[in-house]
Design a protein that fits this description.
By secondary structure, the protein is mainly α. It contains five helices and no strands.
Length: 108
């Protein structure tokens, strides 16, 4: 996170872009993602003690989760039938809010 914000600041200084106050809040969505991942990690570790197959199932589910998170494509490119499932994804909201904070200067 620190390196990416540093890179954004360097590009902003080099291109003489105005610094907006919402850039300072870019860490907030990532804090929520960190807390969510800690919770999932605790649940998976507790389950994998009892059920050894959880480790292998977790690898498959995390790969599917990665492809279901719209980072490199807009949510409007997803068919309407699947959009509700993607909006249920926690990572979608984290990356959407961070994009809105950094690039669109909005905090609502």
């Amino acid at each position: 996170m620190g390196f990416s914000l540093l890179a954004i600041l360097i590009v902003m200084v080099a291109s003489k872009t105005d610094f907006h106050w919402t850039l300072a809040l870019a860490w907030v969505p990532l804090l929520f993602l960190f807390l969510f991942c800690c919770g999932v990690g605790m649940i998976v570790s507790a389950l994998s003690v009892q059920f050894r197959d959880v480790q292998h199932l977790y690898n498959v589910l995390i790969l599917a989760w990665m492809y279901a998170t719209p980072i490199f494509y807009p949510i409007s490119a997803v068919p309407e039938e699947v959009r509700g499932l993607i909006e249920f994804n926690v990572s979608h909201h984290v990356f959407f809010e961070r994009t809105r904070l950094v690039w669109k200067n909005s905090w609502t």
